[in-house]
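REVIEWER CHECKLIST
Item 1: Sequence provided? yes
Item 2: Single chain? yes
Item 3: Sequence as submitted:
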Amino acid sequence: MRWNLPGQDFELSREYSISNDVQDLKNSNCFRISVRLIPGGLVSEYVNSGNLKIDDVVRVTSPIGKFFYEDSGNVTKKTFDTVNLFAGGIGITPLVSICETALENGKKVNLFYSNRSKESRAFDKWLVELKEKYSNSFNLQDFISKDGNKLTAENFPIIQDKENSDNYLLGPVEYMKFVKERLNSQGIENIKIEYFGPTDV
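Item 4: Structure as written out by the authors:
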């Protein structure tokens, strides 16, 4: 997205993930983004301080990335009964729509969600609602570093039914490297990853 903010001589560019849930997409022609407040961040402070109003115009460029849910039912593609989502911090944002779409399609979803603290945990209300709505098919496992429950090699989940599981991973680069290595050590290569920046995972 392109931003022309008051007091700035240059247009600012920021990338965001679409975080609509399934019902949002079905019932409206709108896309939702989630902008986390970063102290000192020009755009994030502008958006979160209430300066952005309905009918304001923000320039949007074409989408990039290939991080999306794939289960089209195409006979040439393998479909999976279980979807494992590994989210580090705000990396959960694009997993919102992936998670809900998979659940709506009758999949079992395991969300392994890592955060520094409970205060930094995004989408709390959504997670509660999801657990209530899909109590038999949605499993949430939290890892909170400040509570002494950081995701480590010792407590890393053992993935069941590996051949029948689809795996998505998003978060800080070091987090993604760690999770990918742990999944690989279990013989899991089917991992969808998206990252921003110059460092490969």
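Item 5: Key structural point noted by reviewer: The CA atoms of residues 170 and 176 lie 6 Å apart.
Item 6: Recommendation: ____
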